[in-house]
């Protein structure tokens, strides 16, 4: 028997293999502007909303561009991939089905906007398994702050102590820890630079959802 009532999932790097797609999108974005992409760029923007990333990018690189134009450019590049090509991580669907079979409430807490999370979940046949869908579009601050997790908990109608959270990045794991949400870290290559800190700060570390079946 699973000893929790709710489960909160991050999307990118946790449920889906999408981080390499974002690396390509970012590289194409910088290449188009004849700029080199800094090594720390992806790590810094990982927990931010699209609005925050656009603002940060414009300020850091002194771009004479509008935030909405940059966001639209990223969305146009990403929507096709999320609708057609990005797949779930191995055994993620089986684990979500296991939770649903055991009457565990399932929530999504993602930095990705609805125009991306909705098609990728539908394309992979798991959209209907989620009871609650929350993104940074629904709150005012990024995953350095508890807002997105608190809203997801509220919508799921479970307490932090009754919930587990799945994340691939250290920032998310640390924020959940402060809320007393039991954290399960899911390995993703894009977070390998933080792997030791992730292992030290999470409650459970898994390389694959197969370990939970």
Describe the protein in words.
With 213 residues, the chain is of the alpha/beta class. It has helices at residues 19-32, 41-45, 50-61, 67-84, 92-101, 114-123, 147-156, 170-178, 195-201; strands at 6-9, 105-110, 132-135, 163-167, 182-186, 204-206. The chain has nine helices and six strands. Strands 3-2-1-4-5-6 form a six-stranded parallel beta sheet, with helices on both faces.
Quickly describe the structure.
With 213 residues, the protein is an alpha/beta fold. 45% of the residues lie in helices and 13% in strands. The longest helix is centred in the middle third of the chain and has 18 residues, at 67-84.
Keywords, separated by commas or semicolons:
13% strand; 6 strands; 213 residues; globular; 45% helix; six-stranded parallel beta sheet; alpha/beta
Helical content (DSSP H or I, runs of 4+): 40-55%
Given the structure, what is the number of helices? 9
pLDDT < 50 runs, ≥5 residues: none
Average pLDDT over all residues: 94
The major β-sheet equals: 6 strands, parallel
**Counted beta strands:** 6
For the termini, the CA-CA separation is 12 Å
Radius of gyration: 17 Å
**Outline type:** globular
